[in-house]
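Batch manifest, entry 17 of 40.
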Amino acid sequence: MGKSTLLKIPRMRLSYADEMLLVNGCPGVIGLAAVFSGEPPAPDRVRARVAERWSGLERMHHVLDLPAGGAGGARWTVPGPFDPGAHVAMAPAGLDALWAMSVDRPLSGGLPPWRLYVVPGAAYGGDFALALVAQHTLLDGRSLATLMRALVDTPAAARSTARPAPARTGLRAAGRELRTMTAVGQSVPLRPPGEARAAVAVRELAVDTVRSARRQPADGRGATLNELLVAAVAGALRARYGPVREWSARDEPVYTAVPCDLRTRTTTAELGNTVTVVRVPLPVDVDGPVARLRACQAALATVPDRAAVHAGVLFPAAEAVRRTGPWVTRLLTGRGRHTCFAATATTALKWPGAADTFDGRRLVRTVGLPPLQRPGTASFALAQVGDAVTLTVVSHLRPDDAGRLADAVVAEFGTWARTTTPSVP
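Output type: structure tokens
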């Protein structure tokens, strides 16, 4: 878990990824809940486990120091160790209510920007949940999973699911990626714009449906969970809003933002924001769920090499250039402020193993909370532990769009599950 002795650390500069998340104009709250069966533990028992497992992790003590004039010049400080009594609490209601109240409300300052809730009440096949909520500026999704896995009774050694160390990439590849990352895309139609509201919807996917869907295309190698999610989102947008050619007179594609973990095999348990985002076009105008899945598989096959360009060239260059002044960060984030940059964000997270417990209470499901983006966007997170697969949709669209998009994604999985014959490429 990368434990280290906590020292009195002076003000520390935010990383490039931290700062980009801080100034993107979004609430920036993310979460991960582990749902267990059995009687909920007392908050003091959870506080004791948190103190035991997280106190040695320096990142969990970081406090964001914002200057009076805004985000420019923000620094991390460590005024002292976090207080488990202030950070671990009983949730006032169930998990759905906690997600709804958290998604658009940044955590208050003065403390490290994370909270862990004991969530009572039966939901999603369990009897209670432990739900970690944090500012994305502090932690990324992989960090949330690392932290939650550290709380179980017998934490497993970090598995090497991260990428290998990046290969050397050239300026030509960096130029291609810059052009791809700055190309104009389409926004989800939102009329009138003032109608946008934050909304969260959670759906369980039947294990048999997911297993059958993963065999698609029937004449191919099968599909990963991430490929299925991206393709299902393309189908859900088409079902909800129609083909892209009907959205506007423009002919640009719709993009989704795919987070890519940049940890190497030697930094698997590193906390923070060791992540980049790769833009992938969504085949909304492609007819047929299996044909859309094929198109997504082809597009996602390029993501590892593109992420290596980010890690090996673009991030180091951005870190060097932004030291000339805060205006550089504002310039770099300008494109990402527009919804046409990425109409959706899609991430799939699998919890290794399926037999974890907390004080003997069995883990039955994980439920993610992806971040709320700007109006006109939606974020999709697919979480799997064992045979339990759960979809969370966070939309900043019309009030009922989160639920409708979630149902449409589930319907896409059902269509794949019922498809038995090979499709024509």
